[in-house]
Amino acid sequence: MPRFATFTLPLCAFSIVLCQKIPEVNAPGVSTRLPEAKCDFHVRENGPDGKLVTGVSLDTSLFYDITCKPSKGFCLRVSNCTVTGDEKGSVPYPIIDANGCTLEESLFGHVQYRTDFQAGIANPYPIRFRGASSAVIFYCQTTLEPKEGTKCEHFTCK
Length: 158
Fold this sequence. Notes:
Elements: E1 3-8, E2 13-19, E3 24-27, E4 30-33, E5 39-45, E6 62-68, E7 74-85, E8 93-96, E9 112-115, E10 118-123, E11 136-146
Parallel strand pairs: 2-11
Antiparallel strand pairs: 1-2, 3-4, 5-6, 6-10, 7-8, 7-11, 9-10
């Protein structure tokens, strides 16, 4: 079941849809589901340790902070992020690919993993879509995936 968190800021509105894929393991007599990703989302100023954003202008450097409840033997994965305006007919614009790598290097950083259950995306230059509304909807897929050995392995973006 998708989880929604919406943040409204004076200049922009940010939303994140936290989704998880829950594949089933097909083994005789066994049906295993991955745990649900229970995450909090915050928008911060100037990086992962910055203050929480209560208002924003187009010259504010932002950091999208995603923190999930730990689940033993699993790792957080953030992928397939898009941004869109909130007006009817707006089309999502891809910014992060399936590996967590940015598709728009001048606007967004790659997904950064601080811990096994904490990730973030830098946005040094906030965006705005043309139109009557200044709202921006930010969507990312978040999943908990089985840990390989003792460490969480993530794709290295180039």
